[in-house]
């Protein structure tokens, strides 16, 4: 039976792909912009600003979509602002029923006012800890870790990778590269990935979102990514014949055989044109073929989404039931960059009992 929206909301959920600078509350952007005199496209109301973000991001172009971040990043240039945004992020995720989240951002984008990379990570970590404490007090316990991102068109990936390793025991679970894919292949940052591998560290790579199979192939086979950010274009290596039989190419087989997690973000993909609709999103086929599929929000502000919204949309499009949602959630928790024993504890003590209670 298809779960109701309220059941989806109360179900334990795990989020691996969420951008800190893509999830601000519109009211917070207004206030922070006012404090520093940053000019926004509209100062009319939080609602109007929220509309502006969603509509600009809806243009169907990844490049225009990325432009909306100029405004969120502009208001996240002080320790206090980063701290607040990080705390509110955790509170919002916990209120949505998320029990474990890895939230990413690019520290190098928050140093315009003189913060060091280290100070940026520290401010975000303080905010996460404050948010975690507030959520626990509100009866919605959540565990949150940072992923530090390097921008693929810049040249600071080695520094950011070192930052990830320096903070690995203080709240940073891993590393990522993000930004426009075309023209900036992941192999540009090979030294950073090789460093992380030597350090026994974890990383994911945005690959196969707007760009095709070569990007996914490089991310896995050259760079050694543990997970794929999006990875939707892996369907280009899968042929569905008229009689319903399915054929996997070498790369798609490898991804499925190795259980490489796909951090799928349906609403975001529809906005950027990486998928035509939720119903036609490759997540349906990839789930049927039992790839290691996970469901994520990407940018809650720009896509006006939440984990509850994403899962509810999938229920509507594919008829998923609670068993399917539990599968996505356990897939995600198994794929987290958290130590194995901690992952297992969340699966056994939080996720399984949470779904069992809902399934009566
Ligand atoms: Zn992303």
Structure summarized in a few sentences:
This protein is α/β, with parallel strands linked by helices. It is built from 16 helices and ten strands. It has a single domain, classed as Metal-dependent hydrolases (TIM Barrel), CATH 3.20.20.
- Which small-molecule species are bound to the chains here? zinc ion
**SS content category:** alpha/beta
> What would you give as the CATH superfamily?
Metal-dependent hydrolases
Gyration radius from CA atoms, angstroms: 19 Å
- Provide the helix percentage: 40-55%
Order of helices and strands: HEHHHHHEHEHEHEHEEEHEHHEHHH
- Arithmetic mean of pLDDT: 95
What's the total helix number? 16
Strand order of the largest sheet: 1-2-3-4-5-6-9-10
Please provide the count of β strands. 10
What gap, in angstroms, lies between the N and C termini?
12 Å
The general outline is globular
Give the percentage of residues in beta strands. Answer: 5-15%
Biggest beta sheet attributes: 8 strands, parallel
The CATH class label is: Alpha Beta
| CATH architectural designation | Alpha-Beta Barrel
Q: What are the low-pLDDT stretches, counting only 5+ consecutive residues below 50?
A: none
CATH names the topology as TIM Barrel
Question: How many domains comprise the coordinates?
Answer: 1
Key phrases:
360 residues; alpha/beta; TIM Barrel; 8-stranded parallel sheet; two-stranded antiparallel sheet; 14% strand; globular; binds zinc ion
